[in-house]
Amino acid sequence: MEIYTYIVLFLLGICIGSFLNVVIYRVPLNKSIISPPSSCPACDQKIKPWHNIPILGWLILKGKCANCGAKISIRYPIIEFLTGLLAVAIYYKMQTIDIFYLVNFAIFATLLALSMIDFDYKAVPDSLNLLALTLAFFSSADIIENFKNALLMMGGMSLIRFYVSYLIKKEAMGEGDIIVAGTMGAVLGIKLSLIAIFLAAVLAIIPSLYNRFANKDIELPFIPFLAMGMFLAWFFDSYFLELWSKLYG
Length: 249
Description:
With 249 residues, this protein is mostly helical. The protein is built from 10 helices and no strands. Helix 4 packs antiparallel against helix 9 (223-235), helix 7 (175-188) runs antiparallel to helix 8 and helix 8 packs across helix 9 (223-235).
């Protein structure tokens, strides 16, 4: 029966991933995520229901609009696939489907959406960012502790932001990053949050260098790396906490 649970969760996950694609496209443009129905951005033709099937729809259409032939980004099925993987991975970690599973899945799914928006706009909507933070308070039964850890992480990141911005004479960190730090604190606790930020910095090194020298751009969206670092720290929490104990006692 376990394999069927994973299959069902993956299928549900890719359906939610399809909805995330709508969120990623419409929220930054201040459009409704409910109506009108999905349509081709190039010709405005409504997408038929069978063309909107997660992953399969893109494959059936061969990555092109059925009406005008405009290219449909491969990012759509990738987001759907990643959301399906998230649903499976979170269940694998928690081994139960309860309210905390749903909340944690919603948090990481929202962070996935924020990551894609940050790549597109180098800014994220407060509505989604604050949604992830609010959900994070309820990621476990200890709501007060989660809230306290969120405040500590946001305060710490704000302090670093002020000092570094003063030293380098320009904005060192976005407000969105600070809110994500609060989400980290609530979900992970302080130790794992610090590990997550370290992982994010390591993951960002090569993309940052590439972006600087290949694209001549010194600004790299950091929320995607914070989200990846947070997920890794959450998923492998036992390993990282054991490593922390060995290093710092």
